[in-house]
Structure formats: C-alpha cells, structure tokens
Amino acid sequence: MNSRLRLQQGFTLLEVMIALMVFALISMMAWQIIHGAMENSAFTDKQTANLSQLQLTWSRLERDLTQMLPRAVNGDDQALRLSENALSFTTQDGLASFGRPQEPDILRVTWRLKDNTLWREVAPALDLASPVEGVQVPVLEHVKSGQWRFFAEGWRSDWTSKTAIPQGVELTVTLENNEEWRWVFVVTDGWPITTEAAGAQGDTPTEPAQDPNASPQETQQPDAAGNAPAQPTTNTGAQP
C-alpha cells in the first residue's frame, strides 16, 4: 500500500508540458514589454536629440541674424551675399570675445549647406591684408534642402544690395524625413551706413548738405480753390 502511494507522487508529463508552456508565454510577454519599452526609450531619446539640435540651430541663427551689420569685408563688397547653398554676412557677437579682449566681436559668418549638413563658418578677422579661413562647425545634420528668403518691403528670394541689409530673414529647412521647419528672424534695425559706402555703391541717395545755422522754411498751404499761394516779392526800386 505504501509503495503504491509513493509511485503516485510527482507530476505527470502533461502537467510538466503545460507548466513549461505557461512559463514560455509569460517570458515572451515580459520580453515584448521590455523590448517595447527599450524601443520607445530609444525613439524618445532620438527625438529629443533632434529637437535639441534644431533648437540649438535656431538659437545660433537668431543670434547671428538679429545682430547683422551693414558692413562689407576685404575681398567681398557685399554686406550680405547669397551664393549657392551659402549665406555670408557680418555680425556682432559679444559672447565670442567675452573674457578675451584680444578677440574681435565683429565676425564674418557663413551658413552653408554641404553633404546634408548645415555648417556654420566663422572668420575671426575682417580687414586683414590676406583673407583668413574661417572655422567650420557642423550645426544641423540630416538636412535635405534649405531655402533663404529676405524681407524688404516684401519677400524676395535673392539679395543684390551691396550696402543695405534686409529687415527680416526666413530659412525653410527640409530634413531627410521630410519634416519642414520654417524660421523667421527680425534683423536689428538702425545700423548706420557710411556716406562713402552709400555713395560709392549707389544704393542709398545722399542728401545735399544743409547749413546748420539756417532757419527752417515754413511750408505754405494752398487756398481753398487749390491755387498755390502767392510768393512775396521784394521791392528793390527807390522809395516814393
């Protein structure tokens, strides 16, 4: 009797197979959950890195374009030049020379699209006898195309003025995943243009010099009938 009870203890083969199947299903579900979480984490990290790169590019562009100067450089007679996949202009960057008074704060910056990457090139010197090659730094990767537009009493796709700078600049960036980003920057207004540069290039007409001691002229309005007012006459003859 006791030997028969000992023979009945333990699991049958069917029970073992069922237990193994349940364990395999639980393991597969756990692996899928962990794998999905890892994929979501990697996707989130990639999107965060892309967004951070876009924000850095926008911030760097904003600092360069909002402090643009109407100033040409040695070897280039245009203050702002748009060439094939490249935009060059002069800007003021106080952070570049912060703590280093020997470094210039007026720089020549070139934004260039090359090899699906948006590069920023900075030339630290402006008016040396020989041009100095700028330092190129990649800013935004996986760029499919880029298009510049300029605002000066309306949007235009080119810029031909040699001394003036636009009031606004627009950059439309298309990434390799067909995402499109449109950035609009307002250029700081009020920078003076020298008379020599304006007269030489012919973009801005020069006003005739005025005598600072001369009294201001009073403008007379026409009468109700629209006739011009009579001009006063000076009697140069003898007194009666």
Automatic annotation (TrEMBL):
The keyword Transmembrane helix applies. Its main location: membrane. It is a single-pass membrane protein. GO terms for cellular component: plasma membrane; type II protein secretion system complex. Pfam families: N_methyl, T2SSJ. Residues 196-240 are annotated as: Disordered. Residues 212-222, 230-240 have a biased composition (Polar residues). The chain crosses the membrane at residues 12-34. Keywords: Cell inner membrane, Cell membrane, Membrane, Methylation, Transmembrane, Transmembrane helix. It comes from the Bacteria. It is found in: Cell inner membrane. GO terms for biological process: protein secretion by the type II secretion system. Belongs to the GSP J family. This is Type II secretion system protein J.
